[in-house]
Write a structure and sequence with these properties.
The complex is a heterodimer.
Chain A lengths: L2 H19 L6 H24 L9 H33 L6 H26 L6 H16 L6 H18 L4 H25 L3
Chain B lengths: L1 H6 L7 H12 L3 E2 H8 L3 H13 L3 E8 L2 E8 L1 H21 L1
Antiparallel strand pairs in B: 1-3, 2-3
The chains are: A mainly alpha, B alpha+beta.
Chain lengths: 203, 99
């Protein structure tokens, strides 16, 4: 064998290692859209609270329920969009959307996220509202960090960013809303755009 | 030079075997069908190469049933991982010396 063949061997080894252990079809576009939904949702929540005549959020039935509903819609739309674009991209990459790799990715993502969601709902029921934004950012950051082993490396940095924002948010609970907007809105748009230009645009 | 060639492992001297080991290096275990798809080879072809690697104790095989379907899983052994690393290092050195 010539050294050219060895080089080819090595590049193939690298390729196989990546393909068998990392899901590369995450779509940047769905990140951008998730950020936009979050911004619209946050705008709506802001308007609701302003309408209510107070500049802080309390749990008087209607406004709070509307905000919760708003949050659910943003979440559902983001997940739906992510599934749609990722499936499309996976088809193009000839990657399977449902195999042991994506299962592993999803489990690693969902365990911290669901644990966090249950925790947040529990403390909301105990009338502790101050840290909700921080906790959402933190647990979302943990979930991203945990899942990042099985997908594109950029997700790890998005995870770090959310964790830092979550901690800042815990220090300044009065600005919780704005940290939430930065984390779930702007960061999704920034990282989504980065990933879009890095992986999607040229293919 | 003699030393480098010594480290080029005969057991890996085939694209598919190299491929099998690469996949097993980064995954705890991989089943037969996944391996087949990743490498794009036929059943018989893959079976003969896994057998060769099994014979030298570089990989371990675990057969079980999922429901009624037989399922074969492969693991890289400690020895296999060490040898694979040596092999890759040797390849790299070969490339560098020939440049």
């Amino acid at each position: 064998m010539s050294s050219k063949d060895y080089l080819k061997d090595i590049s193939e080894i690298k390729n196989l290692m990546n393909k068998s252990s990392k899901f590369i079809s995450l779509s940047g576009l769905s990140g951008i859209l998730a950020g936009i939904y979050a911004l619209i949702g946050a705008g709506f929540a802001y308007w609701l609270v302003q309408q209510s005549g107070r500049d802080y959020l309390i749990l008087d039935g209607k406004v709070f329920r509307l905000i919760l509903f708003d949050l659910l819609i943003v979440g559902a739309l983001s997940i739906g969009t992510a599934i749609f674009f990722t499936t499309k991209k996976a088809k193009k990459n000839d990657e399977k959307i449902w195999d042991s790799l994506t299962k592993r990715l999803l489990i690693n993502f969902l365990v911290p996220l669901v644990a966090g969601a249950i925790y947040i709902i529990t403390i909301l029921n105990q009338q502790k509202y101050g840290q909700t934004g921080a906790l959402m950012l933190l647990f979302y950051g943990f979930a991203l960090l945990n899942a990042s082993k099985y997908t594109l490396g950029d997700i790890r940095y998005l995870g770090y960013t959310q964790i830092i924002l979550g901690l800042l948010c815990a220090f300044y609970p009065g600005y919780g809303f704005w940290f939430w907007v930065i984390g779930f809105g702007f960061m999704h748009i920034i990282y989504g755009a980065l990933m879009y230009f890095k992986y999607d645009k040229n293919n | 030079m003699q030393n480098i060639i010594h480290n080029i492992n005969k057991a890996f001297d085939h694209r598919i075997r190299l491929g099998i080991m690469s996949v097993l290096m980064v995954n705890d275990s991989v089943d037969f069908n996944t391996l087949k798809e990743l490498l794009g080879v036929t059943d018989g072809n893959l079976a003969s190469h896994t057998k060769a690697l099994e014979k030298v104790d570089f990989i371990k095989v675990e057969k079980q049933f999922i429901g009624r379907k037989p399922n074969t899983k492969y693991y890289a052994t400690k020895l296999g991982k060490i040898e694979f690393k040596k092999h890759i290092d040797a390849l790299e050195k070969l490339i560098n010396t020939k440049k």
